[in-house]
Amino acid sequence: MPVSQLTLNDETRTPWIAFGTGTALYGKDAHQAVTVAIRNGFTHLDGAQQYNNEDSLGAGIAASGKPRSELYITTKLGELKPGDTPKSALEESLGKLRVDYVDLYLVHHALSHVGRLKDIWIGMEEARNAGLTKSIGVSNFTSDHLSEILEVATIPPAINQLEVHPYVWKALQPTLSLHQKYSIVTSSYGGLSPLVRGRGGPLDPVVENIRTRLARARGSAVSEGQVLHKYFQQKGILVVTTSTKVERILEYLDTENVPELTPDEIEDIEAAGAKLHKRFFVNCSFTSRYIHI
Ligand SMILES: NC(=O)c1ccc[n+]([C@@H]2O[C@H](COP(=O)([O-])OP(=O)(O)OC[C@H]3O[C@@H](n4cnc5c(N)ncnc54)[C@H](OP(=O)(O)O)[C@@H]3O)[C@@H](O)[C@H]2O)c1
């Protein structure tokens, strides 16, 4: 079954779910995991210069045998070395990834470029205008960071990739309003955190009730993770996830076949999420000291 797509504000399209090579694969050889993910149906691969494994992501893509045109590849600008620009850094990434272009190039962390965010965004536009990437966007940008680059942008960011799940949904509202105003697609990493990193919160019983209802409606198993992924899909959010296990990769992709949540169930998830504010990737979003993400 083809992975469904989201349309970006630059008229390109992206598969709504991506396989990430950070977190569990951060700094590790991602070759095997990437090949397995592609062979089992993932077409969107999410990498980053900072993950220190773009060469193995490239090797995994090559070994999959999948034509380039059927894949969607994302990488992210890390800290700039002296003399480098976003464009020259992307040229180095393309060599490691063994491709001529990426589909999406994100500024990984606003806080890596404090005081020169506008110049960085102009450099991102230069990379796109040179044809090295189809789309450009950002990651871990607050509404203030977005406002800063929007002052100079001739191309608005297509995507902002953030820690998104129900326990941060309320706090994200100022950023999400700006996304709506500029048609910036919200992308979620750490989306399963309430279930895999922070169990015991107010969301647990709500997700379990919805899971039970959906499994009954479907007539076959539905996992708690699929409930959250379905919630994201229905909200038009691009999910970036990962797994070391084939069965989980298949489960993630099977979310397409899970029946839809009702508007009341979506409201229940957001109401339960609003009872607890909890970030699991604080180092990522609020300081320039980010490790293992
Ligand atoms: N832009 C950024 O700053 C940033 C930051 C963080 C992450 N990311 C990107 O997002 C990707 C995904 O991040 P994430 O790991 O936070 O995604 P996630 O979707 O929140 O979590 C995926 C992890 O959850 C585990 N998992 C899933 N279902 C489970 C279950 N039922 N029981 C126990 N464990 C379960 C998986 O482990 P198994 O191997 O056991 O399946 C996997 O390691 C990263 O690889 C990276 O590409 C970006």
UniProtKB/TrEMBL annotation:
TM helices/strands, residue ranges: none
Active-site positions on this chain: 51
Residues the record lists as binding substrate: 108
SUPFAM superfamilies: NAD(P)-linked oxidoreductase (SSF51430)
Domain NADP-dependent oxidoreductase: 23-272
Organism expressing this protein natively: Pisolithus microcarpus 441
Protein name per its UniProtKB record: NADP-dependent oxidoreductase domain-containing protein
UniProt-listed CDD domains: AKR_AKR3C2-3
Sample GO molecular function, one term: oxidoreductase activity, acting on NAD(P)H as acceptor
Domain of life: Eukaryota
PANTHER family: ALDO/KETO REDUCTASE
Sites annotated Lowers pKa of active site Tyr: 76
